[in-house]
Every structure is written in structure tokens, then in C-alpha cells.
Amino acid sequence: MTATTQPSAGASAAAPPALSVRDLRKTYDNGVEALKGISLDVQPGDFHALLGPNGAGKSTLIGIVSSLVNKTSGDVRVFGVDLHARRDEAMRLIGLVPQELNFNMFEKPLDILVNYAGFYGIARDEALARAEEELRRAQLWDKAQLTARTLSGGMKRRLMIARAMMTRPRLLILDEPTAGVDIEIRRDMWKTLREINAAGTTIILTTHYLEEAESLCRNLAIIDHGTIVAQGPMRALLARLDVEGFLFDVDGDLPGVLPQIEGATLVALDRHTLDLDMPRAMDLNRVFAVLGEAGIRVRSMRTKSNRLEELFVRMTGNGNAAPQQGEAA
């Protein structure tokens, strides 16, 4: 294999975004304005979350980027390639894992991958080699000759990712990839996605599991009612939160009347558990001192809630909005 020269820092900085969206708008025939001038950049190599309540516009945005939905106006570029003017070239750069399972349940996983590669002009010998590689990475090689309908829900999800990777996309878009699978399978899939990203593939992820986004993604954009209400590095956005929540497990029973901690809220969830909300600037030692004076001994503590979920609710104002007509849930 011929060695390649790594680009300089200046060259890397000048590289086009993996995805560049400018003033993207979509109004459906029924008048629903699903996207209201969205602008977004996803840098090469990023693992980027796209969050929002049902009906916010996430699926419309993904549909336009993957050329399944026609835009009303705006500009979309994939690694600098104009999606409208050079659609075929742009689509060869993208791998899409939709929320719905959309392969033939009576085909074998190996055939599903090889046939998919054939649609993109990949020679059969090369397709077979890639299929084995992707099925092994998805921990499905031992299922390669079984019919897909015999696979578990988690296996089918992993098969969707393996199929998308057959074309070696530079940008992988995942729409709720772990929906409906249990936590153990979900974490196995996280491992696979981290490996794909570490190998250089840019990933855009939509998910309703906010823990998933916080665990996997470095940057995020939050969409609500067709507009982006927040975007940027995950850590910077989480730093906006000025309140932290903790759960304390205590020895013995709690007293009937809890001590007052100025600036904080302390609530008994049961006889042995305290729920604390406090400003981020508050010193926990002060909390422990007040509890100690009241004869309350803390045995253990843990973070009460997912910080990203808290940010999400604050930014959107409603994490349970109903889907708009014309927008997938």
C-alpha cells in the first residue's frame, strides 16, 4: 500500500464540511412548514447528534440530505459537492440507516449486503470480501446464511448498519438506529459506531435516547418547530446548565422534617433517598455539612438526571410535541 502524506493543519482547516446546509426550507403541499431556514455545518470526522421532539423537522432534514425528500429552497453540500447539481456524486458519499427496517426478510444477510453493493457497481468479489468484513464487525458472520427474518431485533439493526457501510460512505446518517433494542444490545451497537467513527467516517445521529447522544457525540444541534434552537460542542452546551441534580442514599431513616439549604431544593423520595437540586456553583461540602448537622449520613450519591435531557427540555420548551402532518415521528 502506498503511503499517503497527511494534510497540514492549514489544509485540514480549509477542507469543506462533511455536511453543509444553508437556509434550508421545506413546505409540504398541505402548507406545513417543516424547515424554516436551517443552517448547519458538520465537520469531517465528527460524531454529531441531531435532536428534537417529534415533528421538529429532523426526519425532513435527513430526507432532504439523503435525496428522499425534495427541498423547497436552500443549499445542501456533502464534502463540498452540491446535492442538487451533482446528486449522484453526492449520494455516493452518503450511507443511510433509516429508522424502518427495509430489507427483504427472506434473504440471507450475506446476500442482502452483496446485492446492495451491486446496486452501486461494486464487483461481486469485492462485495463478498466487504460483506464478510462488515458482518464480522456487526457480530453477524455466524448468521450470514440464515434468513434475515430469524434475526433478533438488535441483529436486524446491526445488519442495517453493515449494509450502509458496504459502499464505504464518508458520511453515515443514522435515524434512531437503536430504537426498540434493549440496553445491552444498544451498548454493543455504540461500540460498533465508535469504531466506524474512529476509522474516519463522519456520523450524524438522530436519537430519542439522550444518554446515547451524550455518550457518543461531540457536537449537537437541537431542532424545534423547524428551526435550530441550539448547536455547538456538546460540552459547551451542557455547560450552559446552571443547576445540578443528585440523589443521595442515606443510612437509616430520614427525619420527618428535612433541613433547609439556602439556594437548593431538598426532597425525600422515600425513607432512605434524598433528591437534591442545587446551583452548579454551590459547594457540595456545604450540603454535606448541613445534612450532618441534621444527623443525616450520606452513604452514596449519584447524578440525578441526564444533563443533555435537561438542556433539551429547556431549549425546546416541550420534549413531547406531537408530530406535524408531513413529518415522520
From TrEMBL:
Is Ligase among the key words of this record?
no
Out of the domains of life, which is the source?
Bacteria
- Residue ranges of domain ABC transporter in the record: 19-250
Give the Gene Ontology MF terms in alphabetical order.
Answer: ATP binding
The protein's matches in InterPro entries, at most eight in alphabetical order, are given as:
AAA+_ATPase (IPR003593), ABC_transporter-like_ATP-bd (IPR003439), ABC_transporter-like_CS (IPR017871), ABC_transporter_ATP-binding (IPR050763), P-loop_NTPase (IPR027417)
> What CDD domains does the annotation carry?
ABC_DR_subfamily_A (cd03230)
The question of whether ATP-binding is a record keyword is answered with yes
| Keywords of this entry | ATP-binding, Nucleotide-binding, Transport
What is this protein's record name? ABC transporter ATP-binding protein
